[in-house]
Design brief:
Blueprint lengths: L8 H6 L14 H5 L11 H9 L2 H5 L3 H4 L5 H5 L6 H16 L4 H7 L1 H26 L14 H34 L5 H7 L2 H7 L2 H4 L5 H22 L1 H5 L6 H27 L3 H4 L3 H25 L3 H25 L4 H27 L8
Helix pairs in contact: 7-8, 7-10, 8-9, 9-19, 10-19, 10-20, 11-20, 12-20, 14-16, 16-18, 18-19
């Protein structure tokens, strides 16, 4: 298949945070250092070379930017200061915009002002909507019970509607990622290859074990805490919202998990903000505006969630309801905008890339074994 070249691709990537790729002269030092680089996926050299050539279709279908975990060692050791790690990060932003069929990701990553404006407008609309809804339902002086300002049962319905929208948006984008990958790599994998490789998907979604292979273990640990805390809180809200909202007595069966998840979220966000302010590691040396918006929005959501819980347990129901509305003003933009179109989308694309890489490996092994008349070996 012919590769369409785009001479302006490197310039286009600069809008997504790429450094001056012309500094790279393909010495291969970066790939020699990368623990994830291998014969099939030469990270980051192959992607850097594709970017220099303007091989847009090839780069659009590549998994390699997602198989980079930004330990930053390649940038530290680059003899020309080409910043390959940050360029790979910019490729992930660019790929996110390519997967997105709505064009919102492209708008967000190319202009932080538009991203911030849309988030603020969505937050204001959410606040007005829930305030009017609450006034029609009950009293602001009641947090739960029959006359609650925001009844948990009805909020639960709204949560599931948002979850459905989120699944649809991410599902469409994930389907486009798969299509780009199969088209660019001319992948012909059987259903067996997809099924055999499937266990890799949840493992790499939750634990990201390949991230742990990097020399720097702390970023992996912080990321793991953030991921597990977020998923725990999401499960609690989606399936145990009634127990979370009831009170003022504490239901330790659910609240203990909420406390641990809140501590994990706030702690991980603060560590990331501290690192970006101090620039104390390679992955924090360059901070795209979208990184700051993502972290600050997550911190607002986590802290207001804790505050409304404390206020309700203290008997200050009116203040708890006001804080709950503010909390939802952060939750809705985060789930409907940031998760499918911003930095949160990485949590879907990266494990999917690892999974698809294994599918491709198994398909090739199966084809080779079939050619020799033998059974393909099981993947490790």
């Amino acid at each position: 298949m012919a590769t369409r070249l785009n001479p302006g691709l490197a310039d286009e990537l600069e809008a997504y945070g790429a450094e001056d790729v012309s500094k790279c002269f393909n010495c291969g030092n970066c790939s020699a250092l990368c623990v994830h680089s291998e014969a099939r996926h030469v990270i980051p050299r192959r992607s850097m070379h594709a970017l220099q050539l303007g091989a847009e279709d090839k780069l659009q279908g590549s998994l390699e930017p997602w198989l980079c975990y930004y330990c930053g060692e390649c940038s530290e050791q680059c003899p020309k200061g080409a910043e390959p790690a940050e360029t790979m990060m910019s490729m992930r932003r660019w790929l996110t915009s390519k997967y997105d069929f709505t064009g919102i990701s492209r708008l967000f990553y190319r202009s932080w002002k538009w991203e911030l404006l849309i988030i603020v407008l969505a937050a204001i609309a959410t606040g007005i909507g829930f305030t009017l809804f609450g006034m029609s339902q009950g009293s602001i002086n009641n947090y739960d019970g029959p006359n609650a300002f925001l009844p948990s049962a009805k909020i639960h319905v709204f949560d599931w509607a948002m979850a459905g929208l989120l699944v649809f948006l991410l599902g469409m984008n994930v389907a486009r990622m798969w299509r780009f990958f199969t088209k660019a790599g001319d992948v012909r994998a059987s259903l067996s290859s997809y099924l055999v490789s499937l266990p890799a998907l949840p493992v790499h979604f939750f634990a990201q074990p390949k991230y742990r292979e990097c020399d720097r273990k702390r970023p992996w640990a912080v990321h793991l805490a953030l991921m597990l805390s977020y998923v725990t809180m999401l499960v609690l809200v989606m399936f145990f919202l009634g127990e979370l909202a009831s009170g003022p007595e504490i239901d330790w069966r659910v609240h203990v998990f909420g406390y641990l998840a809140s501590a994990g979220l706030i702690g991980a966000v603060l560590l990331n903000l501290r690192g970006r302010l101090r620039r104390d590691s390679p992955q924090h040396t360059h901070s795209h505006e979208s990184d700051w918006i993502f972290l600050i929005l997550l911190l607002v959501v986590a802290t207001t969630g804790v505050l409304q819980h404390v206020l309700h347990r203290s008997g200050l129901d009116a203040a708890a309801n006001v804080t709950y509305v503010i909390h939802l003003m952060g939750v809705v933009p985060m789930l409907v905008l940031e998760v499918p179109f911003g930095k949160w989308a990485h949590m879907a694309y990266r494990p999917l890339a690892v999974y698809l890489a294994r599918v491709q490996l198994h398909a090739e092994a199966a084809a080779a074994a079939e050619a020799k008349g033998a059974q393909p070996l099981a993947l490790p």
